[in-house]
C-alpha cells in the first residue's frame, strides 16, 4: 500500500511540470508554424525566440515582434552608417554613405514606426506596404554602395531579409 500512495506526489509533480510547459510548447509550435511561411525560417525563429514576449504572442504579436526587431536592426544600421561617415575622409565613400543615411533615416524615423502603428491598429495592408518599402530602401543603399569597400552589405541584406520575414508574417494575417 505504501508504494502507490508515495508515488502520487511524484505523479502530481510531473503533471504540474508538464502543464506548465504547455504554453512554451504551444508558443514554439506557433513560431515554427508561422516561420515556415516565411522565406528565411532560421532568421524568423531566432528573431522571434529572442523576445520574451513571443511566448504569449498570437500571429499579430509575432508580426509586431518581427517589426520591432526590424526597426532595431535598421536603427543600428543607420547609427553604423553615421559612424562610417564620421570616420571617412574619402569623398568617393562619403557620398554613397550619405545617400544611405538619407534612405535609412526615414525608414527608422517614419516608415517602420508608422507601419508598426498600422499593424497595431489592424491595418495590415498599410503595415505590409511600409515594411516592404523599408526593405526596398535597404536594397537601394546596397545598390549605391556595391563595388565600394564598405562593410554594409551584410547589414543591408539582414535588413532586407528581416523585412521579407515581417511581410510574410503580415501576409498570414491578410490571408486569415
UniProtKB/TrEMBL annotation:
This protein's UniProt keywords: Disulfide bond, Signal
Keyword Signal: yes
Domain Pectinesterase inhibitor: 26-169
CDD domains found in the cross-reference section: CIF_like
InterPro entries in alphabetical order: C/VIF1, Invertase/methylesterase_inhib, PCW_Enzyme_Inhibitor, Pectinesterase_inhib_dom
Origin superkingdom: Eukaryota
GO molecular function: enzyme inhibitor activity
Signal peptide: 1-27
GO annotation terms (biological process): plant-type cell wall modification
Entry GO CC: plant-type cell wall
Family: Belongs to the PMEI family.
Protein name: Pectinesterase inhibitor domain-containing protein
Organism: Manihot esculenta
Amino acid at each position: 500500500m505504501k508504494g502507490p500512495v508515495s508515488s502520487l506526489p511524484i505523479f502530481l509533480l510531473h503533471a504540474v511540470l508538464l502543464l506548465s510547459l504547455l504554453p512554451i510548447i504551444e508558443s514554439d509550435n506557433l513560431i515554427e508554424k508561422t516561420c515556415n511561411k516565411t522565406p528565411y525560417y532560421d532568421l524568423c525563429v531566432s528573431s522571434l525566440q529572442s523576445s520574451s514576449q513571443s511566448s504569449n504572442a498570437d500571429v499579430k504579436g509575432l508580426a509586431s515582434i518581427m517589426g520591432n526587431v526590424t526597426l532595431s536592426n535598421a536603427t543600428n544600421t543607420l547609427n553604423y552608417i553615421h559612424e562610417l561617415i564620421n570616420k571617412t575622409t574619402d569623398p568617393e565613400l562619403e557620398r554613397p554613405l550619405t545617400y544611405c543615411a538619407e534612405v535609412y533615416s526615414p525608414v527608422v524615423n517614419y516608415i517602420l514606426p508608422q507601419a508598426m502603428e498600422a499593424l497595431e491598429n489592424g491595418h495590415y495592408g498599410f503595415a505590409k506596404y511600409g515594411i516592404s518599402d523599408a526593405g526596398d530602401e535597404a536594397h537601394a543603399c546596397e545598390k549605391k554602395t556595391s563595388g565600394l569597400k564598405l562593410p554594409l552589405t551584410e547589414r543591408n541584406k539582414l535588413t532586407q531579409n528581416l523585412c521579407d520575414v515581417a511581410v510574410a508574417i503580415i501576409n498570414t494575417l491578410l490571408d486569415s
